[in-house]
Amino acid sequence: MEREVVLAKLRERIVLFAASHLSRDVAEDLAQEVLMLLHEKYAHLERPEDLLPLSLQIVRFKIMSLRRKAVRRGEYTQVSITDIPLPDLDANPADTLERKEMLQRLERSIAQLGDRCRQLIRLKLQGKTFPEIQKIMGAGALNTVYTWDHRCRKNLLDLMGGEWEKGAK
Description:
The chain is mainly alpha-helical. Helix content is about 70%, strand content about 0%. It is built from seven helices and no strands. Helix 1 packs parallel to helix 3 and helix 5 packs across helix 7 (about 140-160). The chain is elongated, with a radius of gyration of 36 Å.
């Protein structure tokens, strides 16, 4: 019974000491860890004069360990996700206009392509693989589809003015 009273008072002191350096929740957890350590490794010590300095030393070591871990993980230099401003993708009217003009050029150029090229591009945009496109379009060999794709992209690039991103040359 006397040991339980000593451990209860010791726990209060450990929590107060740890709470002066850390949050109350973490202090409670540390106190529990220290008491478990005292029970497992230092069960032969009974007197408060022996237990108090030992327990405070153990708490100091545990606090230092927590701080080292926090530094290692970068917890002191972390920025909250709510503090990071998100870029407004529509903020630049010039970029929006360039994208719109490029899409219009692309639509006009695709309309000038032959039926096979338009069908090939449509199937690729639907996520079809080249073997699937081969079956759908009835090509005799897979290399035929690769050749069609290469020629269609080259024709499309020529119709776009030789460049994908900039205006026509």
